Amino acid sequence: MPSNNTTQNTQQYESKPPVEAAKDVTLAISTVDGDYELSVANVDTTKEITVEQVRENNVFPIGDAVTEISYSGSMTFKGRRHVIDSYLFDENGLPRRNVALTLTHDDLNPNDPNNPDPFTETWHDLRVVSTGYEMQTGEVTEVSYDWIALGKTPA
């Protein structure tokens, strides 16, 4: 049977779970014409890690090795898609280089010592790999982009 101390800790945790929220999501773009920053309405990200087993005599696993780490995701903007496209694609329709996605996490419980300070994540060398948009009469256009990134800070 758990002690009262364990029960109190569990109850305290259940009443105040750790909270994380996105404060600012921006897309930073550097071009020969200058640097631009756009607000992003929604973002989904994925970090995929490929692990392969190392085998002895090609039979028994004796360990493993990380062979690949990749980053991908999607982002959605509200507004004029042709303007956003002009930031993400060059005059030939190819994805621009020097694009970065920055996400700032906010600290919703600043007085909670278990809640970390706000921090920023940046996916750099981002490349758009597909795009689409949704439009309804009288509504704001939403355009979405699927992307890959060559790196992330912090990893």
Under CATH at level 1, the class of the domain at 18-44 and 73-153 stands as: Mainly Beta
Number of strands: 7
Oligomer: single chain
Strand line-up across the major sheet: 2-1-5-6-7-4-3
Question: How widely separated are the two ends?
Answer: 41 Å
Task: State the CATH architecture of the domain at 18-44 and 73-153.
Answer: Roll
User: What is the residue-averaged pLDDT?
Assistant: 80
Task: Give a topology summary.
Elements: H1 4-15, E1 21-31, E2 34-39, E3 42-56, E4 60-78, H2 81-88, E5 99-106, E6 119-134, E7 142-153
Antiparallel strand pairs: 1-2, 1-5, 3-4, 4-7, 5-6, 6-7
How would you sum up this structure, described in words?
- The protein is mainly beta and 155 residues long.
- The chain has a domain at 18-44 and 73-153: Roll (Pnp Oxidase, Chain A).
- 13% of the residues lie in helices and 56% in strands.
- The chain starts with a helix and ends with a strand.
Q: How would you describe this structure in keywords?
A:
155 residues; mainly beta; Pnp Oxidase, Chain A; seven-stranded antiparallel beta sheet
Quick overview:
The chain is built from two helices and seven strands, in the order αββββαβββ. The chain has 155 residues and is mostly beta strands.
